[in-house]
Amino acid sequence: MPTKTMRDTENQMIGTQFPFMKLNEPGTYLSNWSGHLIRIPQDAVRQGRSPVIEILGTEPLYVTKLSDDPFIPLTKARMIAADLDHAVNF
Questions:
Q1: Which positions ≥6 away from 85 have C-beta within 8 Å?
Q2: Which of 17, 51, 52, 54 is the one with CA 20 to 30 A from 43?
Protein backbone atom coordinates (compact mmCIF):
# COMPACT_ATOMS: atom_id res chain seq x y z
CA MET A 1 0.00 0.00 0.00
CA PRO A 2 1.45 3.42 -0.94
CA THR A 3 2.49 5.69 1.91
CA LYS A 4 1.77 9.40 1.44
CA THR A 5 4.70 11.56 2.55
CA MET A 6 4.41 14.93 0.80
CA ARG A 7 1.65 16.35 -1.43
CA ASP A 8 -0.93 15.44 -4.05
CA THR A 9 -0.88 17.12 -7.47
CA GLU A 10 -3.85 16.18 -9.64
CA ASN A 11 -4.05 12.66 -8.15
CA GLN A 12 -0.34 12.04 -8.84
CA MET A 13 1.16 11.64 -5.38
CA ILE A 14 4.60 13.24 -5.24
CA GLY A 15 6.57 11.91 -2.28
CA THR A 16 4.57 8.69 -2.09
CA GLN A 17 6.44 5.43 -1.56
CA PHE A 18 5.51 2.40 -3.67
CA PRO A 19 6.87 -1.12 -4.08
CA PHE A 20 8.79 -1.03 -7.38
CA MET A 21 6.64 -3.77 -8.91
CA LYS A 22 3.45 -1.73 -8.25
CA LEU A 23 4.51 1.23 -10.41
CA ASN A 24 1.83 1.96 -12.97
CA GLU A 25 2.29 5.66 -13.73
CA PRO A 26 5.00 7.47 -15.67
CA GLY A 27 7.29 9.76 -13.73
CA THR A 28 10.62 10.16 -12.00
CA TYR A 29 11.22 7.96 -8.96
CA LEU A 30 13.98 7.58 -6.37
CA SER A 31 15.02 4.05 -5.42
CA ASN A 32 14.83 3.92 -1.63
CA TRP A 33 17.28 1.01 -1.48
CA SER A 34 20.11 2.71 -3.38
CA GLY A 35 19.34 6.39 -3.99
CA HIS A 36 19.42 5.90 -7.78
CA LEU A 37 17.10 7.84 -10.08
CA ILE A 38 14.54 5.83 -12.06
CA ARG A 39 12.77 7.36 -15.06
CA ILE A 40 9.53 5.63 -16.11
CA PRO A 41 8.28 6.96 -19.49
CA GLN A 42 4.64 6.63 -20.58
CA ASP A 43 5.48 3.77 -22.93
CA ALA A 44 6.82 1.67 -20.04
CA VAL A 45 3.45 1.61 -18.26
CA ARG A 46 1.09 1.48 -21.24
CA GLN A 47 -1.92 -0.80 -20.70
CA GLY A 48 -1.45 -4.28 -22.12
CA ARG A 49 2.35 -4.08 -22.13
CA SER A 50 4.55 -6.68 -20.50
CA PRO A 51 6.74 -5.32 -17.70
CA VAL A 52 9.75 -3.56 -19.17
CA ILE A 53 11.87 -4.15 -16.06
CA GLU A 54 11.37 -6.73 -13.33
CA ILE A 55 13.39 -6.77 -10.10
CA LEU A 56 12.83 -9.76 -7.82
CA GLY A 57 13.89 -10.34 -4.25
CA THR A 58 12.71 -11.69 -0.92
CA GLU A 59 11.62 -8.21 0.22
CA PRO A 60 9.81 -5.51 -1.76
CA LEU A 61 12.02 -2.76 -3.15
CA TYR A 62 10.45 0.64 -2.55
CA VAL A 63 10.65 3.79 -4.66
CA THR A 64 9.51 7.34 -3.93
CA LYS A 65 7.80 9.39 -6.61
CA LEU A 66 9.62 12.67 -7.29
CA SER A 67 7.72 13.97 -10.32
CA ASP A 68 4.98 13.18 -12.82
CA ASP A 69 7.49 14.13 -15.54
CA PRO A 70 9.88 11.26 -16.29
CA PHE A 71 12.44 13.68 -17.73
CA ILE A 72 12.82 16.42 -15.10
CA PRO A 73 16.34 17.85 -14.80
CA LEU A 74 18.66 16.10 -12.36
CA THR A 75 19.07 19.24 -10.25
CA LYS A 76 15.33 19.52 -9.74
CA ALA A 77 15.08 15.80 -8.88
CA ARG A 78 17.85 16.22 -6.30
CA MET A 79 16.06 19.21 -4.74
CA ILE A 80 12.77 17.31 -4.46
CA ALA A 81 14.56 14.32 -2.90
CA ALA A 82 16.29 16.65 -0.42
CA ASP A 83 12.91 18.21 0.49
CA LEU A 84 11.70 14.66 1.25
CA ASP A 85 14.84 13.95 3.35
CA HIS A 86 16.09 11.20 1.00
CA ALA A 87 19.74 10.63 0.16
CA VAL A 88 20.55 10.55 -3.56
CA ASN A 89 23.10 8.59 -5.54
CA PHE A 90 22.80 10.28 -8.94
A1: none
A2: 17
